[in-house]
Amino acid sequence: MKFNMTSIDGSASGSLELRDEVFGLEPRADLIARMVRWQLAKRQSGDHKALGRADIHRTGKKMYKQKGTGGARHGSARVPQFRGGGRAMGPVVRSHAHDLPKKVRALALRHALSAKQRAGGLIVWESAQLDEGKTKGLRAHFAKAMLHNVLIIDGASVNAHFAAAARNLPQVDVLPAQGINVYDIMRREKLVLTRAAVEALEARFK
To answer: Which domains are present in the chain?
Structure first.
């Protein structure tokens, strides 16, 4: 498909062809949701832990004699029934990550790109270059282009001045092409790709 490019300030800057196999699919919400769940589960720390019965430091001596008390026959003060005892079935340190096939992950990224394009949230720049890393100047460019909540994907590397200028802008993320992911695409209102990013993505899915 033919797609019109713009510059950083929103002015027209020619056009290029986007491959339908990457940007023209019928978006599947289930694939995108599976990928987002996989990403968020993988980055959970899983370091929550409660003290179980085996983690409580108390004497192992039987509390009182087995018979004649008229109460339950307890054998340990470390059990959950007593104050200061271990917690029954509490959280333990573990990984929340689960498996998702590589082909499904690749397909989900293509569907996320297609969903952004279909919703009108895709913008393509010729390049993302600045002469100086000043946030004020970049903010002015974004104001002209009406960009407030945006993910910007460059080529193999991000221009140092552009990255420095965008660092202090809220709701603006800048990543190289290899860092593109479904979660960041869907959490931002607009997706900006440079020509180098488009070429890298199309080569990746060739």
So the answer is: 2-44+98-204 (3.40.1370.10), 46-95 (no CATH)
